[in-house]
Structures are given as structure tokens and as C-alpha cells.
Amino acid sequence: MTENFSFDDIKQKFKNNKLFRIGSIIVGTLLLLVILFFAYRQFIWKPANEKSKDSYYVALNHIVNKQNKKEVKEEKGKKIDPIKTLQSNVKKYDGKIGGEINKYLLATQYMRKGKYKEAIVLLENIDVDDTFMSAMIVGLQGDCYSEMKKYSKAIELYEEASNINDNEFTSPMYLYKAGLNSEKVKKYKEAESYYNEIAFNYPYSYITQKNMDKFKARSTNKKLN
């Protein structure tokens, strides 16, 4: 038989039954948090996330044009500083898709200025789902450590990057960089191993076609000398 409770019965039970009262508060609080979470996602986070995807275009366009030595157009009559623009975007959209791309671009600009430690801090805090971009992020960290002459750490990161997304572009590129950094610390056997791995596993890659015979010979000769 189903017991029917009136509002007065529930009110009385809430007043006299401590466990019922505590349980009701917990359930109500959890329900409110769930409602607030979905409301935040739907009405605040999602619109801001979509807006963030366009936030890096101005800075990226400026960077590309400058690299290609094209005329850089000013935005609304103001001179564009890509680093300041990206810094502002990172602060505004951190945690959103566009914010993470802004971090990546800002890190590359820090690297161009020789600010490798600052670049590493950014790169270590980028959160993306795309494995190809993840490989590039770890690879850039390797580049920073290599530029700082911390070759062993660079090799470790290049190996990691080569395994994140197995493909004919990033994998041989980072194995190749691992080989070059191994040569810098006079680990010629390890360097030759990296070059052989590239030649065997990625025979049609650009690096294999262009450089592999030369670098295999160089590492072998150094090892024997």
C-alpha cells in the first residue's frame, strides 16, 4: 500500500526527523549545484568559449604577415603588439579553446624573444584534446630546453612528443631532433638509433628522404672516432 504524505506531514517529518532533515538538505544542495552548473555551461561558458575561438586571429595575422615581410595593417588605427594582444586573450579566455590556442601562440613569441622559461610555463599549462597539437606542444618544450642547452631534458621531451601522435610528420621530426641533441652530448650510438628508427619506420617522410643518409653516416663516423 502506498503511503501518501501531505505537505504538513513532510513539514512535520522535516522538523522532527534529523536524518530526514539532513538528507533533504544534502539532496537539495546537490540538485541546486547541478542546475547552476548546467546553467553556467549553457549561458556563460559556451558563448564565451565560442567567442574565444576568434580571439587569436588578429595577433596570428600580424605574426604571419610580419614573418612573410608583408605590410602589417593596424587595427582601428592602433599599432598591434601581438604579445600584448595574446597576453590579454590568455587572461580573458584561459581554460577555453581559444584561450589555449592563444597560450600556444604566445609561447612561440616568447621563444622568438629568447624567453624560453616563460614559454615553458605556458606550454606546460596548455590543455587540449587534439593529439597532433599535444605533440607540437611537448615538442616546443623540447625546443626550449635545447636552446637552453639542457639537451638531456630536450631528448626526453622529443621522445615523448614523437609517441603522442604517430604520423609521418611529427614523429620523425622529433626523433630527428632527439638524434641531434644526442650528438650534442656525445651519445652517438643513441643518435644513430634515432636515425635508424626514422629510416625504418618512416621511410617516406620528408626527413628520411632529404637527410637520413647524411646524418646516419655522421653519427656513425663520430661513434667510431
Summarize the structure.
With 225 residues, the chain is mainly α. It contains eleven helices and no strands.
Give an overview in words.
With 225 residues, this protein is mostly helical. The protein has helices at residues 7-16, 18-52, 57-67, 82-93, 97-112, 116-124, 131-147, 151-164, 170-184, 188-201, 206-224. The chain folds into three domains: 14-52; 54-127, no CATH class; 129-225, Tetratricopeptide repeat domain (Serine Threonine Protein Phosphatase 5, Tetratricopeptide repeat). 76% of the residues lie in helices and 0% in strands.
Features:
225 residues, mainly alpha, Serine Threonine Protein Phosphatase 5, Tetratricopeptide repeat, 3 domains, 11 helices, 76% helix, extended
CATH superfamily of the largest domain: Tetratricopeptide repeat domain
- Structure classification: mainly alpha
> Beta-strand percentage?
under 5%
In CATH terms, what is the architecture of the largest domain?
A: Alpha Horseshoe
| Proportion in helices | over 70%
What is the mean predicted local confidence, pLDDT?
75
Count of runs of 4 or more consecutive helical residues: 11
Amino- and carboxy-terminal Cα gap: 93 Å
Shape type: extended
CATH-defined fold name of the largest domain = Serine Threonine Protein Phosphatase 5, Tetratricopeptide repeat
Question: Which value, in Å, is the CA radius of gyration?
Answer: 27 Å
Stretches where pLDDT is under 50 for at least 5 consecutive residues are 33-46
The number of strands is: 0
- Biggest sheet: strands, sense, closure? none
Order of helices and strands: HHHHHHHHHHH
Instruction: Count the domains.
Output: 3
CATH class of the largest domain: Mainly Alpha
